[in-house]
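Appendix C reproduces, verbatim, an entry submitted by the partner laboratory led by Prof. M.T., so that reviewers can inspect both the input and the predicted structure.
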Amino acid sequence: MKVAVLDITGKETGRKVELSDEVFAIEPNEHAIYLDVKQYLAHQRQGTHKAKERGEISGSTRKLKKQKGTGTARAGSIKSPVFRGGGRVFGPRPKDYSQKLNKNLKRLARKSALSLKSKENALVVVEDFNFEAPKTKQFVSFLTSLGLENKKSLIVLGDTNNNVYLSSRNLERSEVVTGSELNTYKIVHANSVVLTESALEGIESNLKK
């Protein structure tokens, strides 16, 4: 499948690139996408939540009142969960939310997500570009030329470019990543994916393995 290469102004350069059918034209496996996105979101959780149980509360061990004759329920500890300030019953404990997926499934999920974007015509290839200095206005102009100013967009670069990254940092709907940082969640979350030529080469060589 051939796709026209655009320049930074959104105009065609007159060149076309061949997108690998192994990466951008497979039958999408939605369950693989689901599992990979689920793993990504699970890994965002710190799992440091903790509530103190009655054995961890600081308080007197004195018996509050005599066992019988008060007309109320018996009580032996101020740390009991029935009292304010007492321990929590079955409270949250630190937990590791990480999930394991094998490399082949994760690779299949990324290829499936890219194939879906390609099928929806939500995939754009641009030539490599750079800014002389971080300028949000210049980055907005770039998005406008591609018709992405009001859409959630993912810009994928071949290598780290601080000027481009810093130019996009104030924009809520746009994210700049390198090819090595690309994952299934970011692809699915974006309305449109913009690949630079150098990023395209890296992605294809990585996902064809």
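The chain has a mean pLDDT of 93. Additional entries are available on request from the coordinating office.
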